[in-house]
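Need Putative DNA-binding WGR domain protein's 3D structure for a figure. Predict it.
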Amino acid sequence: MEIRLEKIEPERNCYRFYLIRQERDLFESGSLVVQWGRIGQAGRMAIRSSGPPERIEALFERLVRMRLRRGYAIAGAGFRSGGAAP
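Structure prediction for Putative DNA-binding WGR domain protein:
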């Protein structure tokens, strides 16, 4: 599962993205990979947690809710990776 969130506030020169992705490894446990930064840039990446898939899914949902409360919105279906900031 993967979700891309964006926060765009031109008056504050704020063009940010937050990508949250669940991945499975060879041992059927999961990892939560998070990438964030300015839209149009590669940004930073971190593996936030690993463990049982149920735990990773709960953390995934928690991170999405937290970012939505902070003003991020789910990116539209017409999004293309690597686009430049307006």
